[in-house]
Design a protein that fits this description.
single chain, about 220 residues, mainly alpha, 7 helices
């Protein structure tokens, strides 16, 4: 194992994965939402950066190749679990989350079963797009918490009638309630759309891996 910068970045991304959830136990919201968003986006950037640097400096290693997909899956799985805690069990959220988690577990088990022949399931371009869309969707959904809680804080002490008058344009919007509400809605809707797209790509890549693995799963196969 070599402690190259790409490997260190990958390890830091793995360690950041539980931090996205733990931060909600340490800080109140919306500070926790801000820290989780920044931590997740930074970790997602290292996903691209460590691979780029490894290729640029020719520092690819078996340790990095092993750790990179584990770090990616840890980031996605823990972040999705955290989002479920924030949003609750909403149908539009739980269905794509369940599809993504099922695929990750299934493909990981498939690779473990194939052992030495797991090289058959090499990461495809579509799988890389899947990971990218997953990361963006999760980041957008985390940003919802930022807008939502700033809206709550800015409207603290206001009666529902006053808030309604602000939205109706009858009272000056000195606390940017309308803008915060609009951005929260956009983050929620956009995040869900991206998450469903990520789920579709996730299922498609899972099916592709299964098809590639089928020749190695037949009972009548002779080595």
């Amino acid at each position: 194992m070599r402690w190259t910068l790409p490997n260190i970045l990958t390890l830091l991304r793995l360690l950041a994965a539980p931090g996205v959830a733990i931060i909600f136990l340490i800080l109140p919201r919306p500070y926790a939402d801000w820290v989780a968003l920044i931590l997740f986006v930074t970790a997602a950037i290292t996903d691209w950066l460590d691979g780029y640097l490894a290729r640029l400096w020719q520092q690819g290693s078996r340790f990095g190749a092993m750790l990179d997909p584990i770090a990616d899956k840890a980031m996605v799985v823990i972040a999705l679990a955290t989002l479920m805690g924030i949003f609750g069990f909403q149908t539009l959220l739980i269905l794509p989350v369940a599809a993504i988690l099922f695929r990750e577990v299934f493909v990981s088990g498939l690779r473990e079963f194939l052992g030495d022949t797991a090289g058959t399931l090499k990461v495809t371009i579509l799988a890389k797009w899947k990971t990218t869309v997953q990361m963006i969707a999760i980041a957008v959904l985390f940003s919802y918490g930022v807008f939502e809680h700033h809206f709550v804080m800015n409207s603290l002490g206001m009666s529902p009638e006053i808030v309604a008058q602000v939205f109706a344009g009858e009272i000056d919007d000195d606390f940017n309630l309308v803008a915060l509400s609009e951005w929260a809605n956009r983050a929620y809707s956009g995040g869900l759309i991206l998450l469903w797209l990520a789920a579709a790509l996730t299922v498609a890549t899972g099916a592709d891996y299964l098809v590639k693995a089928m020749p190695h799963l037949r009972e009548d196969r002779h080595d």
